[in-house]
Amino acid sequence: MKVVAFNRSARKNGNTTILIEKVFEELGKESIETELVHHAGRNNKGCPACFRCFKNKDCRCSVKDDSINECIEKMIDELKKYANEREQWGRPIGKPQMVQEELARMIVETEAARSMVYKCAVQKDARNLGNALETVIAKYYSCDVVSKVADGALRIVGV
Asked: Which whole number is the average pLDDT over 120-147?
């Protein structure tokens, strides 16, 4: 297994780096491979709400020089490796129906949250500033989904 940390702090060798390195020390004692990706001084623009990632269905930001694409690619690559490497009951962990169902739930809920956020962004772009309720609902649901997906990932990883 490999743990990748994405440090998007503006200070490359600040407190966040110190904390990540402490965690990596403990992981190293368990022979877990680690990688620290620094984003300080790199192009971190944020989402322009252009919907190209949604329309293209490629999970990539249209802002090609934004460092988030590197993060997304690393996460997807490491998850694929992990699902194929780790075995449970003599087969990769991605094979049992229960795990596939959990992954499907995570994807569906993430897409639903993303759709709610996109709807709010479209409303704001159209100068509809009276969508406070929709915005609050999208924020609440998105935060709830993040928590559920993290819990689901921990169940799959087996931590």
From this structure: 84
